[in-house]
């Protein structure tokens, strides 16, 4: 549902709505982990910088600072959580770093954009759904890599 001059909302749980953009944030966090797994830490840091620039270029003018800062901070949090855990268990590392950075992203964005955390629950749940939905794919990738003898970067 889209109200005039407001973000489009979608249900993320019974009685809980969130802006539709939260789904892409959950996907972006998993994709950052995959970039680091395949290409290494340096490329992951470059991807965060490029993503922050894109966030600044494509965000609504009123939300540029909130969007850019939230992206950069949450992706960095994801990197800091994921990096030490990835070698032990890729899927668990992606899940934990995703959930941690979802909370950081939601709090940073809401405080910078609106000065409150009123929509925090919907933001976190919507992003978490995307991370949870990606877990079977990550599990499959891990098994495929092992079968092919591939090591993470």
Automatic annotation (TrEMBL):
Keywords: Membrane, Transmembrane, Transmembrane helix
Record field: transmembrane: 12-31, 38-58, 64-83, 90-114, 120-141
Name this polypeptide is given: VUT family protein
Source taxonomy: Bacteria, Pseudomonadati, Pseudomonadota, Alphaproteobacteria, Acetobacterales
């Amino acid at each position: 549902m889209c109200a005039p001059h407001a973000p489009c909302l979608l249900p993320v749980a019974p009685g809980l709505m969130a802006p539709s953009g939260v789904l892409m944030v959950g996907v972006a966090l998993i994709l950052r982990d995959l970039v680091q797994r395949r290409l290494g830490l340096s490329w992951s840091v470059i991807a965060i910088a490029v993503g922050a620039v894109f966030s600044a270029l494509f965000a609504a003018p009123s939300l540029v600072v909130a969007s850019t800062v939230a992206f950069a901070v949450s992706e960095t949090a994801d990197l800091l959580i994921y990096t030490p855990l990835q070698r032990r268990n890729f899927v668990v590392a992606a899940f934990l770093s995703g959930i941690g950075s979802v909370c950081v992203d939601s709090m940073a964005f809401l405080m910078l954009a609106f000065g409150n955390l009123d929509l925090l629950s919907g933001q976190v749940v919507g992003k978490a759904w995307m991370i949870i939905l990606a877990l079977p794919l990550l599990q499959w990738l891990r098994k495929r890599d092992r079968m092919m003898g591939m090591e993470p970067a």
